[in-house]
THAP-type domain-containing protein (Chinchilla lanigera), 121 residues
Amino acid sequence: MPNFCTAPNCTRKSTQSDLAFRFLRDPARCQKWMENCRRADLEDKTPDQLNKHYRLCAKHFETSMICRTIYFSPYRTVLRDNAIPTIFDLTSHLNNPHSRHGKRIKELSEDEIRTRKQKKT
């Protein structure tokens, strides 16, 4: 069964690319990945849940954050230790005719992100 990319407006499946990365279990970095995705429905998920069920494809990372390594396998692609996804299409999800499963994903504005961060602290 293919894994879909978690990013809003992205319809890529892991079967379309071998470059799909799991969310990290490290709470601080996982939080940053989640915030950059701007999906309100991910906020209540733990890093373990995100790691187990959610992926981001390579197109959401700068090419400098992705490296091919020959240490494990010549076909193995990994993220650098400091990799953070920064490339997202944040246009309205409702305008995307290819949005998967017909789900509506609430995209957060900068103010909403700031407000939610303040509530958590």
